[in-house]
Amino acid sequence: MLILAFESSCDETSVSVVKDGRIILSNIIQSQVNVHNITGGIVPEVAAREHLKCIEQLTKDALSEAKTNLDNIDYIAATAGPGLPGALMIGFSYARSIAYAKNKPFIPVDHIEGHILANWLEKNDPILPAVALVVSGGHTELIFVMKGSDFRRIGGTRDDAAGEAFDKVSRMLDAGYPGGPEISRLADRATEKNLILPRAWLRGTNDFSFSGLKTAVLNLLKKEQNISKEEVAWAFQESVVDVLVSKTSKLATELNAKSVLIAGGVAANKRLREKAFNEIKVPVFIPSPILCTDNAAMIAAAAFNHIDESIPAHSIVEIFSTTNRGKLLIDKKRN
Question: Whole-prediction pTM value?
Answer without folding.
Answer: 0.90
